[in-house]
Amino acid sequence: MLLRVGGLARSTRLRGGAVQLFLPRCGRGLSSGPPPPQDPEWTDTVEYLDESGALLSTAPGARPAVPGADATILSGASAHPLPRPAAAARLAALALRHRSGAPLSAALSALPSAPDPPLLLLAAASLPASDPVPLISLVAWARLQPWFVPSDDLSSLLAARLPPATHSSELLALFDDTLGLPDPAAFPKTLNAVVSALATHGLLEPAFYCFKRLRDAGFKGLETPAYNALLSLLLTRGLAFKAFEVLDEMASSGCALDEGTYELAVPALARAGRIDAARKMFDEMKQREGVVRAPAGVYSVMVDVLAKAGRLDAAMGMYREMVAVGHRVSTAVSTAMVEGLVRSGKLDAGMELWEEMRRGGLRPNFGLYTMVVEANARSGRLNIAAKLFADMEKAGFFPTPATYACLVEMHASAGQVDAAMRLYHSMANAGTRPGLSTFTALLTMLANKGMLDLAAKVLLEMKSSGFPIEVTASDLLMIYIKDGSTDLALRWLRFMGSAGIRTNNFIIRQLFESCMKTGLYDSARPLLETYVAGAAKVDLILYTSILAHLVRCQDESSERAIMDILSASKHKAHDFMCGLFTGPEQRKQPVLSFVREFFQGIDYDVEESAARYFVNVLLNYLVLMGQMNRARCVWKVAYENKLFAKAIVFDQHIAWSLDVRSLSVGAALIATVHTLHRFRKRMLYYGVVPRRIKLVTGPTLKMVVAQVLASLESPFEVSKVVLRAPGDSVLEWFKKPIVQQFLLNEIPSKADVLMHRLNVMFPSSAPDVRSLSFPRSLGMSR
C-alpha cells in the first residue's frame, strides 16, 4: 500500500521550520519486522496517517533525513530512500521555479533535508546552460549555508555558465574570491575558465588583468586553451608585443604548446619581424608529436614574410615544402613569391614561377598582373610586357594609370615611337588621364627623334590636361640645344612664342651660344636682345666668348654681324674696346691709364677667372690687329692686378723664369716680349745676371715662342716643355740691335720672317666657344 507521507507529519518540534521525513520499518501497512530502536537523536514522535486521516502508526523522528540513505518513501509495503538525483532535481526545480530572491531562499530553506556540496553540484549541473540566473541564485544561497564548502568543480561550472558579455563583473568577483582563498592553486579549472571566458568573448582588459594577477601570484596552472584564447585576442587587437609576453610566460611555466598555439605564434612572430624565432618554432611544430603537417595558413605567412624580407632562398624552400606536403598553393602565396623574386632583380626566376603558377591552374590577380607587366617593361623586355598586358586585358582586368604610364614611358625610353604613341592613344581612349611623367617621357622621346610637330601637339594636349608646360617646353628646347640641332631649337622657340610659353634666360643664353657656334649670327642677335631685355645681365664671360668668335672669324660680313652682337650686349667691356682703338684725342688719356681705369672697375672676388679669360682673348685679338703697344699695356695692367701672379719668377741670381702655359697664343707672345724686356732692363741697367733663364711654355705653345725667338737667333734651347738658356748668353743676345728693336716693340721690316711663317705653321682653328686659338696671321692688318 502506498502511503502519503509528505506534508502529513505532525510534530510539536520542527528543526529549522521544515518537516524532516523519515520512514521506519514498523506500523500498520508496513512490512513486518521489529521496530527500529529508539535513537537518542530522535527528539519527537512522528504519526503516520492514511488518506482518511486515520492513524496508521507512530515512530520516533525529528532528525534530518539524508537523501539516498534514510528510508523516507513507502512503495507498497517497502520503505525506500529518496534517490540523490531526485533530490538534486528537486533543488533544480525550485531554482527554476523561483529563479531568485526571497521566494527561492524560503523554498530552499524549507527543504526536508539540507543538501550537501556534492548534491549542490549535481543540481547545478542539471540546470540549463542558456539561463545563468537560477544557477547564480542557487550558488548564492548555498554560500550562506553552514554546510557549504567551496569546490573547484562548482566554481568552474559557474564560470563556464556565466556569459562574459553581461556578467563580466560576476566573473571578476568569482576570480577575486578564488584567488583570495588560502590555496588558489587547488582551483585551476576555475581560474582557467574565467580567463578563457573573458578572452574568448573579447574582453581584453579584464582577461589580461586576470593573467597578470595570476602571473604575479606565481600561479603556474594556466592551461593551453586559456593561453591560446588570450594569444588569439591579443593578436586580433594588434598587440603582438603583449602576445609575445604571454608566450614567454607560457614557456616559463612549462605549459605544453599545441597545434593551435603554433598556428597563432608562428605567423605572429614572422609578421613582427622575428623571422628567426618564427622559423625555430615552425621547425619545433613539425617535429612535435600529433602535428601531422603544418597548416597551409602558417606556410603562407612564412613564405610571404621571407619573400618580403629578401630571404628568397628560404622562401623558395618553404614554398617547395608547402607543395610537397600536399597543400594547394594559394594565389596570395604565389603572388608573394613572384613579387619577391621580381623586386630583388631575379626576373627570370620570377617568370618561371609565374609560368608554373599558370600551369597549375591558378589565376593571377590584378596586383600580380600589374607587377609582372611593369617589371618586364622596366627591365627592357617590352615584347613580353606587351603580351602580358594583352593577357591582362583579356582576363578582364582594367590596367591602372601607373601600368599604362610604365609601358608608355619604357617604350618611349627605348625610342619605339609607334608603340609608345599607340599606348598613349589607348590610354586616352580608355579614359585614363596620363600623368606628368608620361607626358614628359613622350615629349622627350619625340624631341630626341626630332619630331617637332608631333611634340607640339602632345604638349598642347598636356596643357589641356591641366599640367604646367613651361618647364617641359624649356626642357625640350634644351634637348635640341644639347643635340646641336640649332635649327630645330629655333623652330621650337618660335612655337613656344606663338603658344604664349615663356622660357628662362639661361636657356636663351644657351641657344644664343649655340647659334654663335654654328654661325647663325642673324638669329643670335635677336636672342641676345631678348636676353638683355629680360633683365638678364651680360657678364664678362659671355662678352668674351663673343669676342673669341670675332677673333676666329674670317668672313667680313660675319665680322660685321659679330660686331653688331658685341654692341647689342651693352657690356662695359665693349665701351672699353671701342675706346682702346680710338686715338688719345678722343680718349683724353693715355692708353695705359685707360686700361688701368677699366681693370680697376672689375670685382676680382667675383670675376677674377672671367677677367683672366678676357685678357687672353683680348691679347689674341690685339696681336691679330697688330696693336702690340696696346697689347703690352693690357698685359702690364693684368700682371699688376695679379691676374697672372705666378707667371714671372725672380729667384735672385740663380734662375729667372716665365710661365705661359695658362695663356693664349697672343697672350704668350706678348708676355714673352714684355718679360724679356724686363729681364734685359734688369740685366743691363742693374748688372744682375742669373745663372739661367727659363721660358715654361708647355707642349702647345713651345713651337710658337720658339719660332719667334729663333728668327732673332736667340740662345734658348728647346726641350719638351721648356725653353732655357744661360744668363750670360742671354745677356750677350740682349745687346744685339735687332733684339733691342724687337723688345722695344719695333717690329722688323721683314714681316715674312715672323708673321707669315707663324700663319703657315699655326693656322687658325675653330675649337669650342670659350677656347683660345692660334692667331690667324700676325702680320695681317685690319
From TrEMBL:
InterPro entries (alphabetical): PPR_rpt, Smr_dom, TPR-like_helical_dom_sf, TPR_mt
UniProt keyword annotation of Lipid biosynthesis present: no
Keywords: Repeat, Transit peptide
PPR repeats: 223-257, 258-292, 295-329, 330-364, 365-399, 400-434, 435-469
Residue ranges occupied by any Smr domain in the UniProt entry: 658-734
Pfam family, one: TPR_24
Listed Gene3D superfamilies: Tetratricopeptide repeat domain (1.25.40.10)
SMART domains noted in UniProt: SMR
Family: Belongs to the PPR family. P subfamily.
The name this protein goes by in its record: Smr domain-containing protein
